[in-house]
Design a protein that fits this description.
Belongs to the FGGY kinase family. With about 500 residues, the protein is an alpha+beta fold. The chain has helices at about 50-70, 110-120, 120-130, 140-150, 160-170, 180, 195-200, 225-230, 245-250, 285, 310-320, 330-335, 350-355, 360-370, 375-405, 420-430, 440-455, 460-470, 485-495, and strands spanning about 5-10, 15-25, 25-35, 40-45, 45-50, 80-85, 90, 155-160, 185-190, 195, 220, 235-240, 260-265, 270-275, 290-295, 300-305, 410-415, 435, 475. A hairpin with a 5-residue loop joins strand 15 and strand 16 (about 300-305).
Length: about 500
């Protein structure tokens, strides 16, 4: 089999990486050539992404990829960028960015969310888009932008999501890739096109919303200035991966087609769900709520967003601000040594989704609900892990109920799969066999879709065969999980009250 070389730029909300992938003999080898941490920045316009900082880091990463390839005698054929969902910016026809991309964590979007839901009803929006209700969805950011700054829409401009923006900087070509656009709650998941009816009902301009491309499509080739800055050949193609990171991660689940499998994409967010052939939009899916995002090769990602390891990232950041530095392995060790199941927290509560003061918020919640207040760092981190495991259990049960199916195996992919303690808690709490890995599923899904787009792989099944041939996932049996009274804890978890704002 021929060898092909692709470069993935994978931006998570906490860190970004540039990875060179070599597809050869049915296996994909990965070389991480650049990794960087990043954070949103406060501005008078609200919390924004450090866009130029990210672009600088991408260029540095591509330069490192070029050097690595040259040394190894490899010729990169394509590049593709994936990022988190929902965030976007407007660009004028002449190529001027009209403001920085806002960060979905800015609590300000909650106002627009309440107003829009009040005006046309949550169910009508779900019916039109198949997307679960969350203030972070692009729809509410778009509503607030139109309300605050409608003059900007008088000129012709184009709305592009984060990965589309970087593809534009790489090639000069403006595109909108479908998997990421589908997370906006502005797309009709049944047609895969913008939900014009919903947008018109809300009086929103549709001019900035361009036609869509699919994962695997070519965006263009590198501009001369990018080629010069990175050393890459200007003929290198930019091929859209599933630009939504979760879509890339799900594409790389090493699923055995003969099993009833579901997945947990575990990183900043935990996305737990199943892959479907067509959307599921019912009363039960709306109540759960489960979202229908579009995946690679016409699949639907039927899943729920769960607070995720953001909770631990924020604990780590608070400690860092207070002068104490820990890595994730150290935090896991401290949690392992803490007592089991004393205190639980509702991991999806909006208070915990906002940046800042996570340790204080967890302790205040424990006090508010008369649970033991976690004093040590280990106890705080353990509370987040155990609560996540219980949320996974509840979501898995609801997933089975809504789809009328049971699952043989839960595949966990993403960086969170490295957390052995959380994996053991999850398998014990859910009673489900878990298979963890690949940890770099997002980069793998990104690279393999580029390989498909450049004609080296046929379809999604071929991509998953490569993942299966490449990785040796770790298997967790429920009996070997962390002991504890998980049934009693699940009842306590189900009756936790909402967090009261101070
Ligand atoms: P993102 O969604 O931001 O791309 P990743 O898939 O990179 O996230 O996963 C990042 C998370 O994985 C971290 O927040 C951390 O909780 C977890 N993680 C990463 N490395 C380890 C490790 N060695 N041990 C335990 N957890 C880890
Ligand atoms: C995970 C993720 C998730 C989105 C959120 C904004 O990184 O893309 O799927 O809902 O970020």
């Amino acid at each position: 089999m021929e060898t092909s070389v692709h470069i993935a730029v994978d931006l998570g909300a906490e860190s970004g990486r540039v990875i060179v992938g070599v597809l050869s003999d049915g296996k994909l080898s990965l070389e991480e050539v650049h990794r960087f941490r990043h954070l949103p920045v406060p501005t008078p316009a609200g919390l924004c992404w450090d866009f130029t900082g990210l672009w600088r880091s991408i260029l540095d990463g591509l330069r490192a990829a070029c050097d690595y390839a040259a040394e190894a005698g490899l010729r990169p054929e394509s590049v593709g960028v994936d990022t988190w969902g929902v965030d976007w910016a407007l660009v004028s026809e002449s190529g001027v960015m009209l403001g920085l991309p806002r960060c979905y964590r800015d609590p300000v979007f909650a106002d627009a969310f309440e107003r829009v839901q009040g005006r046309i009803g949550a169910r009508a929006i779900y019916e039109a888009t198949g997307i679960q209700h969350m203030p972070l969805n692009s729809l509410y950011q778009y509503v607030s932008r139109v309300e605050q700054d409608d003059a900007v829409f008088e000129e012709s401009c184009r709305l592009m999501f984060m990965p589309d923006l970087f593809h534009w900087l790489l090639t000069g070509v403006m595109t909108t890739e479908r998997t990421n656009a589908s997370t906006s709650q502005m797309v009709d998941v049944r047609t895969g096109d913008w939900s014009h009816a919903l947008l018109e009902r809300l009086g929103l301009p549709t001019g900035p919303l361009g036609s869509m491309i699919d994962a695997g499509d070519t965006v263009g080739t590198l501009t001369a200035s990018v080629a010069q800055a990175t050393g890459l050949d200007p003929s290198v193609r930019v091929v859209a991966p599933p630009t939504h990171d979760t879509a890339s991660a799900v594409a790389a689940v090493p699923a055995d087609p003969g099993t009833n499998w579901c997945y947990l994409s575990s990183g900043t967010w935990s996305l737990l769900g199943a892959e479907l052939d067509s959307p599921c939009i019912t009363d039960a899916s709306a109540a759960a709520p489960f979202t229908n995002e579009l995946g690679v090769c016409g699949t639907v990602r039927f899943l729920k967003n769960i607070g995720g390891l953001w909770l631990v990232q924020e604990v780590r950041r608070q400690l860092e601000r207070e002068g104490q530095t820990f890595n994730y392995i150290e935090l896991e060790d401290l949690a392992a040594a803490a007592d089991p199941l004393p205190t639980l927290m509702p991991v999806n509560d909006p208070v915990f989704a906002e940046p800042g003061g996570m340790i204080d918020k967890i302790r205040a919640y424990a006090a508010q609900t008369s649970q033991p207040v976690p004093e040590s760092i280990g106890a705080v981190v353990r509370c987040t892990f155990e609560s996540l495991a219980l949320e996974y259990k509840a979501t898995l049960e609801r997933l089975g109920d809504v789809l009328g199916r049971s699952f043989d195996v839960l595949h966990i992919v993403g960086g969170g799969g490295r957390n052995i303690l959380l994996n053991e808690m999850t398998t014990a709490a859910t009673g489900c066999v878990m298979v963890a890995g690949p940890d770099e599923a997002t980069a793998m899904g990104n690279l393999l879709t580029q390989a498909m787009g450049t004609g080296h792989l046929e379809d999604l099944a071929a991509m998953r065969r490569v993942v299966n041939a490449t990785v040796s996932p770790r298997r967790y049996e429920p009996e070997a999980g962390i002991r504890g009274d998980w049934s009693a804890a699940a009842e306590r978890y189900a009756s936790l009250p909402a967090c009261v704002r101070n």
